[in-house]
Queue: 2 jobs
Job 1
Amino acid sequence: MLSPIYPNEARGNRRIGAVTSVRRIPIDSASIGDERDLYTLPSVTETMRLHEYQAKELFADAGIPVPDSQRATSSDEVLTAVEDIGYPAAIKAQVHVGGRGKAGGIKIASNKQEAKAYAEEILGMEIKSYTVNSVLVEAGVDFENELYIGITMDRSSGKPVAMVSTEGGVDIESVAAETPDAIAREHIDPVFGLHPYQARRAVYDAGVPSDVASDVAHILSTLYTQYESADASEIEINPVMITTDRDVVAADAVMNIDEDALFRQPELASMEDTAAGDDLEIKADEYGFDYVRLDGDVGIIGNGAGLVMTTLDLVDYYGGSPANFLDIGGGAKAERVANALDMVFTDDNVDAIVFNIFGGITRGDEVATGINEALEKFDTIPKDVVVRLAGTNAEEGMEILNTDRVEVEATLEDAVEQAVINAQEVHQ
């Protein structure tokens, strides 16, 4: 895949598997080229994400060491948990989104007063539009080193791939981009599974200290067993901590399940958090959109998954970063177009928007009417909109568009490049 280990998430994201795997980790540059990454290899897998506490329960049952922990939904429950667990204790927001620590969603409490204050601070906070309804109270770990281990599907080879790195505790995407050799990889034959020698080789190739290498290899093998038996699309621990006593402990846990396999995973299906979605996901459900939130600032609206994916690639090519995937589908009428703009305007991550429409059954005049209707609601347009229309009734649409409120470009390349420039200017 590689699917996002910290995807843009929950039900709204799972509805379209095409971009739940937008993630830039080159798997094998020899086989897929130095310049080609997983961004251009869409997955067809829709996923159900487990919370950290849920994944750790499964890991613990499988024999993977995890810190003592308790889930809490109130400050009183947090205080009860830390009394049992002791100090220091980590209080960790349970949301389907990465970057919790940077957002203030992970705190280390050293006493009761801090535990109460952090609980009140984290519970109810918003992290990338996700409301924190529960936290994991976890025993602190006195560690010396942090590792990364994970397993996902490499769609280019058609095989799962096991990954190990001594650069744990940071975004694995950054490691892959800056020091790709720091990630050891082993492709796995799904017929035979992960051989013990492969697990050992990945661990040693990554440079894991020899005195804990066997334990780390065992965890990697156990992860693959979990990956296979649970019909997972990706599974990872970041970080695996090496303690001062030279034990290895899973300090975090990510586990995403192939949604198409949930019919044979009833226990996992029962873990789905239907309340985990943000306002955008709720709105996407209301409008009937396939909307996936990404980490960038250029909003993208198009008609057709392939066209939207092409637009994503072009945004990246011109130095921008996509903020979303939104496919309005074929034959979209004015109301649906207006709703799409409302969706993207609502996304706080978006600084500029590119509208890419190629008309077949979708008519350019209907699209233009919908854009005008959406923009008429605003005295001041909240975000710059660039429009490219081609195909059926494109000329009629170009005449209808209110060019006082949108920018119009004749080609997709020009439209995307202008949208990227618009987004960059917001931060200047």
Job 2
Amino acid sequence: MMMTTSLPLIENHSPAHICPYDQACSYLEWAAKELKLDQGIVEILSHPRKVITVSIPIKMDTGEIRVFAGHRVQHSDILGPYKGGIRYHEAVTLREVSALAMLMTWKCALLGIPYGGGKGGIPIDPKKFSVGELERISRRYISELIKDIGPSVDIPAPDMGTSAREMAWMMDTYSVNMGHSVPGIVTGKPLSIGGSLGREMATGRGVMIIVRESLADHGKSLTGARVVIQGFGNVGGAAAELLHKAGAKIIAVSSGAGGIFSESGLDIPAVKAYAAENRRSVVGFSQSTPISNEDLLTLSCDVLIPAALENQITQENVDQIKAQFIAEAANGPVTLDANQVLEARGVTVLPDILANAGGVVVSYLEWVQGLSYLFWDEERVNKEMEHLMVQAYRKVIHESKVRGVNLRLAAYTLGVGRVAQALTDRGLYP
């Protein structure tokens, strides 16, 4: 397609009309076609409701003043307050944040949680800043957004490059500005200020639950199942630990620099302790053979869990994939073309908006606890989360059978369908 730089083109592509990652919109259109939605509804849902970019001027430790850009995209609040993480990563763009905000809308709707989708981010590499600089950036960012967020408006959470520490700064900044403590403004906070038990492991636990349910549906069990996990961060590490506990045999895991393999199964607690001492890397773990991230994906196993980056399984390597089940713990690790090839071979692909939804479920439970000032023990949090995850899984399986479509499309028709229904019932203002 020829691109010219005439003025109308720029106007058409104003930030409020970002159709992010064209992939996020193609999911919407795909589901809309299956649901036979009215074009007007699709048009409304294709655009984020609000796109906010703020200027963040910061005094660096050297005394120099630098100005950063901070984004927050609020896609839809048809079902409830906007919800979504804040990422600090060099590659953050408005386009990416808009896409992720839209995917959050479908994810919350699929899980039956009363939230809409939002996402925020600042294009910085947090490793290049001191703790004091990060604190000043986080606090100024939130104070610039103060009119656009709130426990019943928009509730940020941690994401890539942010953690409970940043959430504590953000909660404090918001609370100081309000004149009283507001625990419900963010989720993923430290326990001391109203965080929830079970939050750390939540996304990994959700992955384990979805894998367990899917194996059971096929007459298999976690006990002895051979599992390969790409990524050993918060999600992959927690999933490895819980699957190992449940009796699965984890034969390979990897971190950014490469992976480790053991035919007889890795000692996951030992790997975890090793990674904690080696800057989160698993490379060099003694009772194992080194393996590259590329080769790890093609190992013969029952379950493959890509828990690192998007677009890991593509047309290029799909023919080498030997797993029977793939659980998308990362966002979008299997491309749509690869998904079709795998489905045709009878591989079960458990889509990201279902498989990695454990984090947002426990965020919701944290928010509920914060609003009611009534805190639960870990057992109750895990039980509530399990109930919501299993319920969503059952609905996706049912939808897939009734419509005769793959699990990804079934998950999106449920998510998009719920939002479209609410939009239809609420009508269009004015």
